[in-house]
Amino acid sequence: MSEVMANKEKRKTPDFSLVDETDDYAVVEKPPFLLVHPTKPDGPRTLWSELRNLFAFEIANGGQVSIINRLDRETSGLMLIAKSSTAARRFGLLMQEHRVEKEYRAIVCGWPEWDEASVDGPLTRAGAVGPSRIWLKQRIHPTGAAALTNFIIEKRFSRGGDRFSIVRAIPKTGRTHQIRVHLASLRHAIVGDKIYGPDETHYLSFIENGWTPELERALLLPRHALHSSRIKIDGVGSWESSLPSDLSRWVNASA
Question: Does 20 participate in catalysis according to the annotation?
């Protein structure tokens, strides 16, 4: 733990927790369902707005809030925040040089036949290369941006007569929905994934009607089971986060 955090009580808000903090950066743990950035004026609370409130003193004295690794609304876990323009530039360069290591935990459908696998599949927006009813949906396509993810099986388990696995996902690039698309391409979609799971119309139904008993029966979880579990930065530090309570409870219910 950094000196700054050692000298102050660990600060928390209803929406996220502060894991580590220095004068230059902070590491926070985002819960599921919290938006990272505003999508419209007067929209719901976001991590970005909460961080600006938390670091209001620093901002008033020339600091800023720059989110280095973004997470989807439903994805939980560790995020790196730069508190100054100098730190933001530094972390940006380290990201470009692949010196920021990220690792995720995902609960997927089925028992993969492999213990380790890699997917080297370039990604682009699905609607750019074919018809798609979902604007933000991504797909593997040769014209897309390079994307590489390594996977390691951590645990196989059964629940209600169905098979599931916990997978460590180690992305080597940072494309939109990369882990979700690559796991779906291996025919082991993430549990609860409304877009890349059993049927993309589940996402359209959710947008129109919200979470329903029909969606719960089909998807099993109200959010996709993906968690940012580790960040390591050369020469800076390393942070880890265990599977959050909603996902660990779901896994342990199988025992």
Answer: no
Q: 168 with 154: CB under 8 angstroms?
A: yes
Pick the catalytic residue from 20, 24, 42, 72: 72
Write the DSSP symbol of residue 236. Answer: T
DSSP state for residue 104 in the 8-state scheme = E
pTM (two decimals) = 0.91
Q: Helical H runs in the chain?
A: 3-6, 47-54, 56-60, 85-96, 126-129, 178-185, 201-209, 213-219, 245-252
- Residue 6 tokens, joined: 């050692």
Q: Evaluate if residue 254 carries a pLDDT over 90.
A: no
Number of Cβ atoms within 10 Å of the Cβ of 18: 19
Read off the pLDDT of residues 126-158 as tens digits, 9 standing for 90 and up: 999 999 999 999 999 999 999 999 999 999 999
Residue type, 203: Y
